[in-house]
Design goal:
Layout (H helix, E strand, L loop, with lengths): L1 E7 L13 H4 L3 H7 L3 E5 L10 H8 L4 H4 L4 H8 L8 E11 L8 E4 L7 H14 L6 E7 L2 E6 L6 E2 L17 E2 L2 H17 L1 H8 L7 E8 L7 H5 L3 E4 L3 H9 L3 E3 L12 H11 L5 E6 L1 H8 L2 H26 L3 E6 L16 E7 L20 E2 L2 H9 L2
Parallel strand pairs: 1-12, 1-13, 2-15, 10-11, 10-12
Antiparallel strand pairs: 2-14, 3-4, 3-6, 3-9, 5-6, 7-8, 13-14
């Protein structure tokens, strides 16, 4: 038996004024056809009392109980970047963001959490400039990641900072969301220094001339410490691989002892290399039992309030990922199962994550069952509800 998870990050949503969601508006004939002969329902991927981040939700869908294994978001990203951590180190996600407005730092507004979806090459050059010019306390280390997503490490430190994800405060003044708690003054000083350096950077001056959002500040969030996972193969008895453009998801896989497979041109947006990811899945499943392929595009569009982009990203996943994987796995003749699901909803109306249950599909090539229409509401007809991602994952692995 082969197992493939196709994860459309954040593609679940709330109905609009006409009762429609991107999933009902998207032309997704392949997903719909599979859902019609699959086990469908809802799954509560985010445990009560935990924030609905992609870290918690993807960990849950991958079969790891966040209440047992979660130690923060940024250390998972650090693992993907290749940063070695000790148990005493503390990590933070460091976004390159665009702040707008005049006056003191505290009076500015969060305009863009991704600095215009800045490319990795440009971002790395800016991080190198920051590393050269920032005055940081001893033991602080800054590392480049992918696109706007980077990592700050505090060696031999302590947790306790109160920080806010920048995608949760789009178009809001940042005054009420500045660092507080442990290290608050030093973390805020880091952000302020970063703005002084980045605003003066020739790279950002060129971005402004080109009509792009400048990466004019760092924004710290996602505090965490080194995680310790039971290896996936030991936990579930199968060999796994992860395919994602996002350091967070790659990091979960690596910490779980899975192989992380890079795809050229995979960028975590609607412009990602969907066919390349599909080819990587079909190659990896030959010598792995399990492959988890993650597409970030619907979530990015949700954060940006881009309804057309979110609908289009679902359609691209349907045509360029779901269809060829289903057809080729069927052609090969070996029994296989597909789990098609988001990790959490990212409603366009809110532009951030929520913890509502998500609609899932579990397809088994060895069984034909009476399924459902695939949407947030459509799957409710089955009255199937899993109370955790682990419960759903264990059902998925049942043979």
């Amino acid at each position: 038996m082969k197992y493939v998870v196709i994860l459309g990050d954040g593609w679940a949503d709330y109905p609009d004024e006409n009762g429609q969601t991107p999933l009902t508006l998207a032309n997704k004939p392949n997903i719909d056809a599979i859902a019609a002969k699959s086990l469908c329902g809802l799954c509560k991927t985010v445990p009560d009392g935990m924030k609905p981040g992609s870290d918690v939700a993807n960990m849950s869908v991958m079969g790891y109980d966040p209440k047992k294994y979660y130690t923060g978001r940024s250390p998972l990203e650090a693992a993907s970047i290749g940063i070695e951590l000790s148990g005493a180190d503390v990590t933070y996600r460091c976004n390159l963001v665009t702040l707008s407005g005049d006056g003191q730092y505290e009076s500015l507004t969060m305009k863009d959490y991704s600095a215009g979806e800045i490319d990795s090459e440009t971002a790395s050059a800016l991080i190198a400039e920051l590393k050269e010019k920032l005055v940081m306390p001893e033991g602080w280390e800054l590392y480049p990641g992918v696109s706007y997503r980077h990592c700050l490490v505090l060696r031999s430190s302590t947790t306790g900072a109160e920080l806010t994800p920048p995608h949760d405060i789009l178009d809001r003044p940042i005054a009420d969301y500045l660092p507080s708690g442990k290290h608050a003054k030093a973390l805020l000083d880091f952000q302020k220094q970063s703005m002084e350096i980045l605003k003066a950077s020739p790279i950002n001056k060129e971005r402004v001339k080109a009509g792009k959002n400048p990466a004019n500040s760092c924004w710290l969030w996602g505090e965490g410490t080194k995680p310790a996972f039971t290896e996936f193969e030991k936990l579930y008895g199968i060999k796994g691989a992860v395919i994602s453009a996002v350091d967070l998801v790659k990091g979960i896989g690596l910490v779980a002892g899975m192989d992380s497979i890079d795809v050229e041109g995979a960028c975590g947006t609607i412009h990602t290399n969907f066919p390349g990811k599909t080819a990587a899945v079909l190659d990896a499943i030959k010598d792995h039992d399990f492959v988890y392929v993650h597409m970030e595009a619907p979530d990015e569009c949700g954060h940006q309030g881009d309804k057309a982009g979110k609908i289009r990203s679902i359609e691209l996943i349907d045509e360029l990922v779901v269809r060829p994987i289903y057809e080729e796995m069927t052609r090969r003749g070996e029994r296989f199962k597909l789990l098609i699901t988001p990790d959490h909803p990212t409603p366009l109306a809110l532009r951030t994550h929520v913890s509502d249950p998500v609609p899932f599909i579990i397809y088994d090539s060895g069984k034909d069952v009476h399924g459902a229409s695939y949407s947030e509401h459509g799957v409710c007809s089955t009255r199937v509800l899993f109370n955790s991602g682990v419960e759903m994952f264990e059902e998925f692995l049942k043979n």
